[in-house]
Amino acid sequence: MIGNYVICAAIACFSFVWLWSYRKYNYWKDRGIPYDKPYFFFGNIGFIMRRSVWDYCFELRKRHPTDYVGIFLGWKPTLMVQTPELARQILKKDFEYFQDRSVNSNPTDHLGCLNLFTGNNPLWKNVRNEITPMFTPLRLKAITELMNFNAKELVVRVKQEYINNKNTVNLKQLFSMYVSDTVAYSVFGIRVSVLNNQNSPLWYITKHMVKWTFWRGFKFISIFVLPAVAVVLRVQFFSEEAANYLKMLFWNVVEERKKTENVHYKDLVSQLLSLREKLELPVGTDSKLVDEILVAQAAAFIFGSVETSSSALSYCLHELAYHPEEQAKLYNEIEMAVKESGEDILDYNKLLELKYMTICINETLRKYPPLGYLDRVCLKEYKLNDHVTIEKGNPVFVNVLAIHYNEKYYPEPMEWRPERFSSYSETDNFDYTFIPFGEGPRICIGKRYGMMQMRAALSQLILKYKVEPAVPYPVTTDPNSYLLAPKNISVKFIER
Ligand code: HEM
Questions:
Q1: How far is the CA of 128 from the centre of ligand 1 (A)?
Q2: 118-127, 181-190, 270-279, 389-398: lowest mean pLDDT where?
Q3: Domain tally for the chain?
């Protein structure tokens, strides 16, 4: 008798789950919108940990070469748009509908959910306005001096570690060290060099970013594509150890500042301390939360900087190693600029003038944008066109790779050809066909900083060393990674 009840209950449960998922997974079909076939529970993210998110975005357009395609993040319907026109609509023209990202850590993880990348309005607008002055040309000019100083250390390290000692270079690690040294200064005003084997407090936090382990990949994927799971599992953006260390470092620097009140620092910490006075939060907000918001911005700055620039620099050297003609052109441009300037290192203005350098970086970012898609959530019902209405609460993604690899804009897109960008100018965004930094009001705040960081490193490395291939082409992506990360990437450095 009991056995019969158990069987009936099991059948009822099974039928309920089946009906529920049948209805859920017919969401796009019912609306006549092309969609990627979902699988039970995972929807379209069953690839997790076997292939990277980046690879999924790349393959999605091959399977669905349409203007938009429906996918399921678990059971959540999500629209992926794949044309520059729709990208413009979502990211800029109708921004009021798409001001926030869908990414979410758990609400108790303050560093994870209150930073500029993950934060929602009105906090986002408040913080963004306050931090933007960090990136004026004047500030960047000053930071470029330090980038150049660190790039010099980079050149020395290559000679000692990889040429003299004949070690194989792990490019991602090497560039993470370089970026980490620069961030230590731009965020905390600390001049240390892990490249020069100094004990860097920043490297303690950033060294974990070099490698994507299974667990780190899982955490990021749940935060970015399955926020409900991240909340239930109380997943944290940064490990507890790194978060505590970052907080300690931040407040130690603030305490030190109190001793030198007359000195005007130009780093992120000082910018954030002025934000503290102006932050408009609901009355009664715990002052501890305000402090957490400040540290969260430093965390976003570190993460945004290290993960992206180190991969982009690695891919750029890898492509240059396989393209000796382009490498020679770049070398000639740098050598000429150095001769003309009469200095052995190029300053901010001279680095900006390196046109061929800029188009080499652009082509690298076209082929290898660190984020495969841009993420927004629909805040109120939105009519995309006569056939598609996006419901409030549903995520909308822009498939960057669908646009960057579209033959219409980039013939033979698998080829690395800097000349594609010869007519590019800083003010021209190529009509949303080139969006490695995103677009619209939520465009990457560190775009100019990141570009300068890459120019400084490449100009000094290419001037001193010729690079040749050391690993097969193309490099595979790390399946555990949320952002694009090369699995093993290396070059041979040869002294000029
Ligand atoms: C190669 C270098 C970089 C690339 C390719 C890159 C790419 C991106 C992309 C695609 C976004 C999302 C934009 C959107 O959704 O429209 C973004 C946002 C962001 N990036 Fe970067 N980034 C780079 C360097 C940096 C650096 C150096 C920093 C810090 C100094 C930084 C900090 C941020 C922050 C804080 C956001 C969130 C902005 C907001 O929502 O208001 N990034 N980045």
A1: 12
A2: 270-279
A3: 1
- CB atoms under 10 Å from CB of 257, counted, come to 15
Measured from the CB, is residue 302 less than 6 Å from ligand 1?
no
Residue 378 beta carbon below 6 angstroms from any ligand 1 atom: no
* 367 against 303, higher pLDDT: 367
What is the domain range of residue 110? 31-495
| Percentage of the chain modeled with pLDDT above 90 | 56
Residue 57 corresponds to which tokens in the numbers above? 């975005």
229 assigned to some structural domain: yes
The reported pLDDT for the residue numbered 428 is 60
Please tell me what DSSP assigns to residue 39: B
3-state secondary structure of 63: helix
The two tokens of residue 163 are: 């040429």
Question: Is the C-beta atom of 313 inside 6 A of ligand 1?
Answer: no
In a domain, 15, yes or no: no
Query: Ligand 1 within 6 A of 449 CB?
Result: yes
User: Does residue 13 fall inside a structural domain?
Assistant: no
Decide: helix, strand or coil at residue 298: helix
Residue 105 has pLDDT above 80, yes or no: no
On whether residue 320 sits in a domain, the answer given is yes
Smallest CA-to-CA distance from 452 within 141, 216, 215, 46 is with: 141
Q: What percent of the chain clears pLDDT 70, i.e. is strictly above it?
A: 97
Maximum CA extent, the chain: 94
Task: Tell me how many helices (H) and strands (E) the chain has.
Answer: 19, 8
47 vs 187, more confident: 187
Contact 99/64 with Cβ under 8 angstroms? no
What tens digit of pLDDT does each residue of 159-178 get? 999 999 888 899 999 999 99
Atom of ligand 1 nearest to the CA of 311: 1
Residue 77: pLDDT over 70: yes
Indicate which CATH number applies to the domain containing 281.
Answer: 1.10.630.10
Cα distances (angstroms) measured from residue 248 to each of 116, 239, 242, 276, 287 = 20, 14, 10, 18, 17
The DSSP bridge partners found for residue 210 are none
The answer to whether the CB of 71 falls within 8 A of the CB of 399 is no
d(CA 151, CA 157): 10
Strands 76-81 and 395-399: parallel
Residue 492 has pLDDT above 70, yes or no: yes
Q: What is the mean pLDDT of residues 410-422?
A: 96
